[in-house]
Model the fold of this input.
Amino acid sequence: MILFAECLIGIILFTAIVVPMSLKDPIGVISDYPPAIRKRCIELGLAEDRKKRFSAKDIIRKTVAIIVLVALAVFVMLKVNHAETFLQGFGYSMIIWLAITWFDALVLDCIWFCHSKRMRIPGTEDMKEYKDYMFHIKQSCIGTLIGLPACALIGVLVMLFAR
Done:
């Protein structure tokens, strides 16, 4: 039951951060849009042309978020879940990571983003890529893989600090 509550809290916090940021400035999260939409935004002069999908600022922001989340997860694994082993720390954190990642893909991306008029960027409203469900599923698979080393680190830190 604790793990379910942690998944739910993670989903709520993630949604509370992502949705307002996305609604406030869709161009600010353009790196999360399908490639064809990003390309059109560049052609329209709404976004800058980058050689890389994510800017240094995006990478720094995401890295800081991962560090904070790892520290928080280790604390929760030790104090709430009473995890003592690598497998417990890794397993619990991976379940929470998967819950958030797949909620993001299925609910926020495939349901909300793909169908919300508020997420349409002016000049791109006609693009079929707004309903590119496979783009979001593939990104979620990548997100799942990104979670593996983060959760492994959580497992190692749980193992070290539980003693």
Remarks:
- The longest helix spans residues 86-115.
- Residues 2-161 form one domain.
- The mean pLDDT is 92.
